[in-house]
Amino acid sequence: MSPDEKSGFAEQSQTSYDAELREQLLRRPPRYEKLKLGNGGRIVIPAAMREEMGVKPGDTLIAEVKDGELRLISRRMALRQVQAEMAKYRKPGESVVDEFLAERRAMWGEE
Q: 107 and 59, same structural domain?
């Protein structure tokens, strides 16, 4: 038999074990996870997903149903989304806080 001929099942050799790649894959949160709906409509969010969301037990989440999908986001992420949406209304160099404080100082007779 020549070296080019394959015998048996003609399997290719398995790639060598890469411990670093395994660790990277284990650290990556699952994109999709099968969850079971428990009593009272409860679900448990897997630890990797909670970590990716930046939430821990006791934190408040914001829930939304959109197009039949349940979406959960942390309050911190909800705030960031609102800030990003409102940023387009802010004029360059404008400080709403400074304007508010100036109005209050004028009202109190401090300026």
A: yes
Q: What is the pTM of this model?
A: 0.54
DSSP H/E element including 93:
none
Q: Give a yes or no: residue 6 inside a domain.
A: no
Burial 53-65 (b: 16+ CB within 10 A, else e): bebeeeeeeeeee
* Angle CA 12–13–16, to nearest 5: 140
Q: Pick from 10, 36, 53: which residue ends a domain?
A: 53
Tell me the pLDDT tens digit for each residue of 89-107: 888 888 888 889 999 999 8
Q: In this structure, are residues 69 and 96 in contact, taking their beta carbons and an 8 Å threshold?
A: no
Tell the residue number behind the tokens 């109005």, with chain if given: 103
Element (H, E) at 52: helix 47-53
* Together in a domain, 82 and 102: yes
